[in-house]
Amino acid sequence: MHDVKKTTPSTPGLRERKKRATRRGIAEAAVRLAAEHGVENVTVEAISEAAGVSPRTFFNYFPSHDDAFVLVDEEVGERVRESVRGAAADRAPLDVVRDALVGELDGFESRQELWALQSKVLQRSPHLIHRGLKAQIADEQALAVAITDWLRATRPDTGGAPDPGLFPRLLAAVAHTAARVAVESWCEHPGETSLAEAFQEVFARLAQGLPRPTE
Predict the structure, then answer these.
(1) Residues 53 and 139 in one domain
(2) Between these two residues, 8 and 92, which has the higher pLDDT value?
(3) What is the mean pLDDT of residues 17-26?
């Protein structure tokens, strides 16, 4: 195994932080308005006013009205992928992806209310579920690319093979599903466990090969 220097995700500059805050503010305004009034009754103008931006600014961040309701945490995926690419060479692949996701838990916990509202919005507007699924698949595919990049960087002897196989896609899909199950379990049992504990239990079961439960 070749040694690879572990990198730390870079800290975004002021301009990038402002852009992320603006995008997040628009998305939060959209979700809150939709939870109260229904997606069909919420206009781009209303979202923009609630977020303190112009409709033109809205479209700088979201290609359509509906996108604002389903792309709340897009920047999280970027940070996860950067963490995966910078992971040390001697780490187990599942641990690399798990730790990249765990690094975002503080942000997850602080936005539990917004997630609950978004779930409510999606349940009321089934047409948004398909759009959300497309965004999830795109994020999963991007994670698979990041895993592929890490595998190549940590194993230069693999050469320039265009695709190391199904493994990156499978790992990305499994990790996304595990994260979703952990979050859902945590939300369904408020106060009983922390999100970090739910994550650790889910990924520990995966690492064990999902043996039959003893309880």
Answers:
(1) no
(2) 92
(3) 87
Say how many C-beta atoms besides its own lie within 10 A of residue 139's C-beta. 20
Return all residues near 51 (Cβ < 8 A) that are at least 6 apart: 22, 25, 26, 28, 29, 30, 58
- Nearest-angstrom CA–CA distance, 124 and 120: 6
CA atoms within 13 A on the CB side of 49: 6
Q: Looking at residues 186-194, what average pLDDT do you find?
A: 76
Query: How many domains does one find in the chain?
Result: 2
Confidence band of 109 (pLDDT split at 50, 70, 90): low
Q: How far apart are the first and last CA of the chain?
A: 39
Query: Is pLDDT of 171 > 80?
Result: yes
Q: Could you list the residue range(s) of the whole structural domain that residue 54 is in?
A: 10-63
Hey, how many other C-beta atoms are within 10 angstroms of the C-beta on 9? 16
> Residue 18 belongs to a domain with what CATH number?
1.10.10.60
Whole-prediction pTM: 0.74
Please give the Cα distance from 128 to 116 (Å, whole number). Answer: 15
Confidence band, pLDDT 50/70/90 cuts, at residue 160 = low
Answer yes or no: is 129 within a domain: yes
* CATH number of 158's domain: 1.10.357.10
User: How big is the chain by its Cα radius of gyration, in Å?
Assistant: 19
Nearest to 170, CA basis, from 144, 146, 151, 148: 144
* More confident call, 105 vs 48: 48
- Contact call for residues 150 and 80 (beta carbons, < 8 A): no
